[in-house]
Amino acid sequence: MGKKVATVITKLFEDVEFTSPKEELEKAGHEVVTIGFNAGETVEGKKGKASVTIDKSIDDVSPEDFDALLIPGGFSPDQLRKDERFLNFTRSFSNNKKPIFSICHGPQLLINAEVVKGKDITSVSQVAIDLKNAGANFHDKEVVIDDSGLISSRTPDDLPAFNEAMVNALQ
């Protein structure tokens, strides 16, 4: 039975860090639901290669309705992390030990949600110091899997391993 994966996303996300995981998750039989500021809004990727119509507003969803959380990178996580609704949504996945999939700049949202302390994680290099300062155990590897269910990767180059780890986690 397929799982339901919440994807928090807004404008200037890293195009392939959304499209590639979405494609692989759907190929494995899972449903990917995009969650943003406003349902029906179309947001563009920072490279202009992908656009996404937001399925649900953050005001209309509950973490209990989803099995996992995907946080694509780009400038999207930086915009989402200043909104308490997205922080609370993210915290709920962490507090309930539901899988969280984060790539590139995705951990910026996790840092502001204060859910990385003591966890093994990776990210794009420029976010590493922020993770360390937030108490995370940073590892410069293509995929890092924490016991809590947090799966992270660094950049689009890591997508094959990241996608495989996500699909395996949902089996």
From TrEMBL:
The molecular function terms in GO held by this entry are: peptidase activity; transferase activity
Name the keywords, alphabetized: Glutamine amidotransferase, Hydrolase, Protease, Transferase
Question: In the record, what lineage is assigned to the organism producing the protein?
Answer: Bacteria, Bacillati, Bacillota, Bacilli, Lactobacillales
The DJ-1/PfpI domain sits at: 3-168
Write the gene name: thiJ
What is this protein identified as? ThiJ/PfpI family protein protease/amidase
Q: Which domain of life is it from?
A: Bacteria
Q: What Gene Ontology terms for biological process does this UniProt record contain?
A: proteolysis
**Annotated organism of origin:** Marinilactibacillus psychrotolerans
Question: Mind telling me which InterPro entries this protein's record contains?
Answer: C56_PfpI-like (IPR006286), Class_I_gatase-like (IPR029062), DJ-1/PfpI (IPR002818)
- Annotated family: Belongs to the peptidase C56 family.
